[in-house]
Write a structure and sequence with these properties.
Protein name: Enoyl-[acyl-carrier-protein] reductase [NADH]
Shape: globular
Keywords: Fatty acid biosynthesis, Fatty acid metabolism, Lipid biosynthesis, Lipid metabolism, NAD, Oxidoreductase
EC number: 1.3.1.9
CATH superfamily: NAD(P)-binding Rossmann-like Domain
Catalytic activity: a 2,3-saturated acyl-[ACP] + NAD(+) = a (2E)-enoyl-[ACP] + NADH + H(+)
Oligomer: single chain
Structural class: alpha/beta
Distance between the termini: 51 Å
CATH architecture: 3-Layer(aba) Sandwich
InterPro entries: Enoyl-ACP_Rdtase_NADH, NAD(P)-bd_dom_sf, SDR_fam
Strand order of the largest sheet: 3-2-1-4-5-6-7
Radius of gyration: 18 Å
Bound molecules: nicotinamide-adenine-dinucleotide
């Protein structure tokens, strides 16, 4: 425990269960004194998320927000404004693409509707939430979204989600420029593969995890504590001057071109 987030309030979007990256981040923020509002997608998820939220040291504050629905987003940010007036941080850990699109040929399997939905939920939602959050940040603030290497390089089955993550990372830079003069920092955290609900939707997810272990510089899985620690850095005052960045936390996987070489070859 510490006080890096003492006096800071913010919204964490994307907790679905105890394995969610958003939950890993929220736990570290709470341990550093943050006050946190949690948004959940629908009633079914609320029942799963509430016990988690109630286990934190801060006062439980939950609001519904389906990012595809403008009225739902209006209501969520109205609730934040009514309760706190201003906020200091936003965590966006939301993505979705259909199962039929997260397999096989990107070229063959990407439909207009699938493309639209992946872009809407996984990229535009950060622009929209970021805009709304910035209106509640008169004293500056910090926003973080979660992304993955499939935006920069080709990963089997990641397909349309890789394209959506590329849009998300580019959006992060444009948002960072717009909001920089207001002392609001906007960054993306590129995490290595971790066992979550979203991961289970990707065909070959297990193989992705194994490749991460075998090929990463550190020869190990990406640890939730590392991803959450990086989020804490970006969201706290430790991150002063860091904006428009995509920070990789993946045991070094992103920088490896050739995993290993046999000297005799
Ligand atoms: P998760 O399934 O726990 O979280 C995904 C969240 O998105 C869920 O809480 C879900 O409710 C929410 N969501 C989906 N559609 C929504 C909608 N219409 N409205 C509101 N919320 C909606 O999985 P996760 O792995 O923790 O994913 C969080 C983020 O991290 C995602 O952006 C994901 O792409 C990213 N990420 C994950 C990994 C990994 O290996 N798990 C690696 C890098 C990045």
């Amino acid at each position: 425990a510490g006080e890096l987030m003492k006096g800071k309030r913010g919204l964490v979007m994307g907790v679905a269960n105890k394995n969610s990256i958003a939950w890993g981040i929220a736990q570290q923020l709470a341990a550093q004194g943050a006050e946190i509002a949690f948004s959940y997608q629908d009633e079914a998820l609320e029942r799963r998320v509430r016990p988690l939220v109630e286990s934190l040291p801060c006062e439980p504050f939950m609001v519904q927000a389906d990012v595809t629905n403008d009225e739902s987003m209006d209501a969520c940010f109205k609730a934040l404004e009514d309760k706190w007036g201003t906020i200091d941080f936003l965590v966006h850990a939301i993505a979705f693409a259909g199962k039929d699109e997260l397999v096989g040929s990107f070229t063959e399997n990407t439909t207009r509707e699938g493309w639209r939905r992946a872009m809407d939920i996984s990229a535009f939602s950060f622009v929209d939430a970021g805009k709304r959050a910035s209106h509640l940040m008169p004293n500056g603030g910090s926003m973080v979204t979660l992304t993955y290497l499939g935006s920069e390089r080709v990963v089997p089955s990641y397909n349309v989600m890789g394209v959506a993550k590329a849009a998300l990372e580019a959006s992060t830079r444009y948002m960072a420029r717009d909001l920089g003069p207001k002392d609001i920092r906007v960054n993306a955290l590129s995490a290595g593969p971790m066992r979550t609900l979203a991961m289970a939707g990707i065909s070959g997810g297990k193989a992705l995890m194994r490749t991460g272990r075998e090929w990463s510089m550190m020869k190990q899985d990406t640890k939730m504590e590392g991803v959450a620690g990086a989020a804490l850095y970006l969201l706290s005052d430790l991150g002063f001057s860091c904006t428009g960045e995509t920070l990789h936390v993946d045991a070094g996987f992103h920088a490896v071109a050739v995993p290993s070489m046999d000297d005799d070859d």
